[in-house]
Amino acid sequence: MKKYLAEFIGTFLLVMVVVGSGIMAENLSKGNNAVALLGNTIATGAILFVIIKMFGPISGAHFNPAVTMMFMLRKEINKKDSLFYSIFQISGGLSAIIITHYIFEQKIIQISSNIRGEIPLLVSEIIATTGLILTILFIRKNDKSSIALGVALFITAGYWFTSSTSFANPAVTIARIFTDTFTGIAPISAIYFISGQLIGCFLGYRLFKIFD
User: Fold this and answer.
1) Which of 64, 71, 52 is nearest to 205 (CA)?
2) What does the pLDDT look like over 108-151, one tens digit per residue?
3) Is 44 exposed, middle or buried (0-12, 13-18, 19+ CB in 10 A)?
4) What is the CATH number of domain 2-211?
5) Using one digit for the tens of pLDDT, what is the confidence trace for 170-209?
6) Closest-CA residue to 155 (of 72, 70, 52)
7) What is the C-alpha to C-alpha distance for residues 51 and 40, in angstroms, rounded to an integer?
8) Which SS3 state, helix, strand or coil, does residue 168 take?
């Protein structure tokens, strides 16, 4: 149960930081989206480093069903654990939305109207998620102690070099459907994002096998 709880808390903190920093950045940036995105980026990269260091020894610090699926494909986690990891990750993300809306005095239940795009964004998420998977696997192979830093830096870069701002995480994507704030994503766009993330997970897994 400790590892499931670690995945819940880690994903909760990740989504709370992503959405909360987005709300804060939008409130303070006075309409300058570049400044808002920069604030959102720094906060997300920082919390990724912290939560991976916190929970890595307990659960492996996935906080992401795509990462969990990759480890299941590698037979490093069984199907039961991968299912429960995903459930706790998604639950943690949704719980974070409720708390974040409450502390920022937002309407608690929301559905995003932020349509982010279709096929080009799907391709962007394939690239983002493939890159994330390769980051985890290569750094784990070459310098395991640097995984947290590598993931944090890759996602920080991904906010700026991908047109989708590198969600690369189905649990975070699902949670962001339910916030109509700076970081929200409309349900119609989420379909493309999640599809890209699942494809990217498999592609990253297959590419790494060439080097493994």
Assistant:
1) 71
2) 999 999 999 999 999 999 999 999 999 999 999 999 999 999 99
3) buried
4) 1.20.1080.10
5) 999 999 999 999 999 999 999 999 999 999 999 999 999 9
6) 52
7) 17
8) coil
